[in-house]
Design brief:
Helix content is 60%, strand content 8%. It is an alpha/beta fold. The strands form two sheets. The chain has a five-stranded mixed β-sheet with strand order 3-4-5-7-6, covered by helices on one side. Strands 1-2 form a two-stranded parallel sheet. The N terminus and C terminus are likely disordered.
Length: 464
């Protein structure tokens, strides 16, 4: 009888779910090669010249001049060194020198593609120099002129490509130099370490300069966007403030219409029933309009006004209160001279309010930006009686003094322009030759009918 057949001991079986170390290494290597191929084969902004976004035309031409200078100087040098010093044949020398230098012109617009050509030519040149007669005692695998051209290419590459691509180029250069040690000719001076170190330094410096330039460019773009948003917000705030102030003016007229329509049947005897119903409908419509205006005012009113207890109860000012305004400005240290029309002028409430606010904002600008400057305020009526001219002129301060604000918010001039626009007037502002400033507003004594009809509701809502 024979016993049971013995089976050889094969050792412990691999645990399920665990991948052998060799396969993990191979998979990681394949993944690294795949990433390397993607980075080296995907250029950033191909065809865009280096420094193409700068404003100066001289700086835009600089990369072409530098690339042309390197190509023209390195081409004859490479031919001379490879042919005379290393002893390569004439046809091979011309091909290698051309492939190693002429693509530098391509590096201005496509540096990654130029790197492929020059790197391949340098590798082929290193292989060709292995059996050359003059390699003993000379640099190998990268002769000096190849190192200079390669570093110039690295600078162009670092100004365009992302960090992962630059790292892939640097590692590829190092791996090629490391593998060349297997075939090092006897008596040659190895330069792969020097090439590897200098390439890394140039790539790091160029990438740092590029990233710094990108950061500054993004900061300038963000500041431009922020300035535009700030100007737009200022404009909207001024329009909302003007609309809140004009509410009282329009509400007064609507209240008068409501009272007149509601009291018409009692004031006028003998009205037919249809007329009484019509007056009642007019009064009801006017009351609804007032209610809608109050809702609109609630939307326009700022949170600060709500916290202070609601809308202001003081009457809206006009040119009749300019004397009091000037007195307050004089107490603030600004000598102001005021000239008003000798005869009282009948102004529409919107025009009266706009004239006062323009003078108020102009004097506030003088106090902030030119403290102590002599100022003259004049309000005159045109000869034809159609327009009111408001002129505020300040000269340079007699004693040099630092302005209270070096940069304003822009509310003053924006508010003046909006107020003038609402009443269909014109505004002229600008500096004077002696260092002063001039504000001239021309306002109609009565707004045009089309402007007055839309001032109360729709136009104010849309402007905000």
């Amino acid at each position: 009888m024979t016993g049971p057949a013995s089976t050889p001991d094969r050792g412990p079986a691999p645990r399920p779910g665990r991948e052998p170390a060799r396969q993990r290494v191979l998979r990681a290597a394949r993944q690294a090669l795949r990433v390397l191929a993607v980075e080296l084969g995907t250029p950033t902004e191909p065809g865009t010249p280096l420094l193409g976004s700068v404003r100066s035309p001289w700086l835009r031409r600089l990369p072409y001049v530098v690339a042309f200078g390197f190509a023209v100087s390195l081409l004859p040098t490479s031919i001379n060194v490879l042919g005379n010093d290393y002893g390569l044949e004439g046809g091979l020398v011309g091909a290698l020198a051309t492939a190693q230098t002429v693509p530098l012109l391509l590096a201005v617009t496509r540096p990654l593609q130029a790197w492929w050509v020059i790197f391949a030519a340098d590798v082929v040149g290193a292989v060709a120099l292995i059996g050359a007669d003059g390699v003993a005692g000379r640099a190998w695998p990268w002769p000096p002129m190849e190192i200079v051209g390669y570093l110039a290419l690295m600078l162009a590459l670092s100004l365009r490509e992302r960090r992962r691509t630059l790292t892939a180029v640097w590692l590829t250069t190092g791996v090629a130099g490391l593998l060349s040690q297997v075939f090092t000719p006897d008596g040659s001076n190895n330069t792969w370490v020097l090439m590897f170190v200098l390439t890394g330094v140039v790539l790091m410096m160029g990438a740092t300069l590029r990233e710094r330039g990108d950061a500054q460019r993004k900061l300038i773009e963000q500041e431009t966007i922020s300035e535009a948003e700030r100007a737009r917000r200022t404009l909207l705030e001024e329009r909302a403030r003007i609309a809140r102030e004009l509410h009282d003016v329009v509400a007064h007229h609507m209240s008068v219409i409501t009272v007149q329509a509601a009291s018409a049947p009692y004031r006028i005897s003998g009205l037919p029933g249809e007329a009484e119903e019509e007056f009642g409908a007019i009064a009801a419509t006017a009351r609804e309009s007032l209610a809608e205006m109050r809702r609109l005012l609630g939307v326009l009113r700022s949170e600060e006004a709500e916290q202070q207890g609601g809308p202001e109860k003081t009457p809206q000012p006009g040119i009749g209160m300019l004397a009091k305004l000037v007195e307050g400005t004089v107490r603030a240290g600004v000598p102001v001279e005021l000239a008003l029309p000798e005869e009282p002028v009948a102004l529409e409430p919107a025009v009266d309010l706009s004239a006062y606010r323009i003078v108020q904002e102009a004097l506030a600008n003088v106090v902030r930006h030119a403290p102590g400057a002599p100022t003259r305020v004049s309000v005159t009526v045109a000869a034809d009686g159609a327009r009111l001219t408001v002129l505020i002129v300040n000269s340079a301060p007699s004693a040099p003094s630092a302005p209270l604000e070096t940069t304003g918010t822009g509310h003053g001039l924006i508010g003046m322009r909006e107020r003038v626009r609402l009443v269909d007037g014109s505004l002229d502002t600008g500096p004077l030759p002696d260092g002063g400033f001039r504000v001239a507003a021309r306002l109609p004594l009565a707004p045009p009918p089309s402007q007055a009809s839309t001032l109360s509701t729709t136009k104010d809502a849309h402007s905000v």
